Amino acid sequence: MTYETVIGLEVHAQLLTKSKMFCGCSADYANAPPNTHVCPVCLGMPGSLPVTNEKAVEYTMVTALALNCTIPEHTRFARKNYFYPDLMKGYQISQHDVPIGQQGWLAIDSHSTQKEIRITNVHLEEDVAKLWHRGDYSLIDVNRSGVPLMEIVSEPEMSSPEEARDYLIELRHILRYLGVSTGNMEEGSFRCDANISMRPLGRGDLAPKVEVKNMNSFKAVYQALEYESQRQRKVLEEGGELVQETRGWIEETGITVTQRTKEYAADYRYFPEPDLPALVLDPAWIEEIRAKLPELPAARRDRFMTQYGLSLYDASILTGSRALADYFENCVKLVGAGRAKTVSNWLLGDFSRLLNATNTEIENVKMGPQHLAEMLGLIDDGTISGPAAKAVFEEMFHTGKTAGEVTAARGLSQISDAGEIREVIRQVMAVNAGAVADYTAGKEQALTFIIGQVMKATKGRANPGVVREIITQELGGKRSA
């Protein structure tokens, strides 16, 4: 029997709020000493009462709208009984039957066509504490407990590990555009649990699903799902039976291992949270948030292709980061849409290389769009050559100096004076008589060599167009027919 893969994803994203979900403790736990951002509420002390973080609710509404969800006028929290050591209260405050976002969708590119993956819900809950395992004992840091955590649950509509990876990448782009989450998988602020099962091709009945955890990169998600897909298919083809369970991805060995038998919804014994009132989501508030939605990555990508004539590849890379897309458009506003491709080349080339080499975020770059615009102007009016422009660009990036300042300080102004260039050319030809003879004998590649020697002698400052013109003038009459 032939089987097809069915995948659904549960994505958890920590929200960029200043305080935790139900108390006033700082949500910035990453660099804090263990167990310092805590209070009676997030420690689960008897008698402490939670208070809902309004900004976290707003961020979840923004995300739900961006994912084409319906938002109800009333929502509420529930207690999810979850007896694990990383929850101080012994239960988690989450949402169950009335989530903030309901029945949305996210479009991804699949096999050169668009595919809409339905979103079951977008709901809000609190994160758990962090466990540090040390051999036969564990340590616990409660700083993370209570940080606002948004969960985005998809329908099981992805049919390959590639689609799951593409879905996650597109979803992270959206969250970053909205400014609601950093989306860093390596830091744990963007986490994914994958439900994967097999289905006989052309039939509706699914084999028991397996939930895969412990994947901390897009590569790990792909590899874990690829392994699990092959494992499940092999079990079924050999006549075995699958069980509903939770498995963990072991990156070092490239396999998944059993962690526990999967719980069902009834096992969590959900009931309405008695310490929190139901929330009223005013339609006027919803529309106010909708009106403030930014242009999302897919729409911006399409616009870059039509408005600026960029390739799909260039537009996709530029719009992968809202900061980079903004930087690009601010540059284009200064130099004109006709130079959009040139701007794109600089940003996707030298600019991206320097960002990666220095581990710098765009927001912290010393050179602004006006620096690049000025440099392009110096190229256009012949003040600097292409090779010199690369040196100017790199120094602007590192120092924040203007193109004019760098050009003047380093003596990079292009030499366009015909008399000065002619003198250098004659000197070069005098010491490269062989190349001159080859050119006059009809070997065109010798001209490239001579031009290169002139550029070397002038340290890249000679105008290449003027150099070529004068050489052909000097040697034109001596060439063989």
Please characterize this protein's 3D structure.
- It is built from 15 helices and 15 strands.
- With 481 residues, it is of the alpha+beta class.
- It folds into three domains: 3-287, no CATH class; 294-410, no CATH class; 418-476, Orthogonal Bundle (Arc Repressor Mutant, subunit A), CATH 1.10.10.
- The strands form four sheets. An eight-stranded mixed sheet has the order 5-6-9-1-10-11-12-13.
- α7 (322-335) packs parallel to α9.
- The longest helix is centred in the middle third of the chain and has 20 residues, at 218-237.
Main features:
41% helix, 8-stranded mixed sheet, 3-stranded antiparallel sheet, elongated
The coarse overall form would be: elongated
Widest beta sheet: strand line-up: 5-6-9-1-10-11-12-13
- Uncertain spans: none
Number of helices: 15
Q: Please indicate the count of domains.
A: 3
- Kindly state the percentage of residues in helix: 40-55%
| Overall residue-averaged pLDDT value | 92
Report how far apart the termini are: 74 Å
- Rg calculated over all Cα atoms: 30 Å
Major beta sheet, specifics?
Answer: 8 strands, mixed
Per DSSP, what share of the residues sits in E-state strands of 2 or more residues? 15-25%
Assign the structural class, choosing from mainly alpha, mainly beta, alpha/beta, alpha+beta, or little secondary structure.
alpha+beta
- Total beta-strand segments: 15
Give the SSE string. Answer: EHEEEEEEEEHEEHEEEEHHHHHHHHHHHH
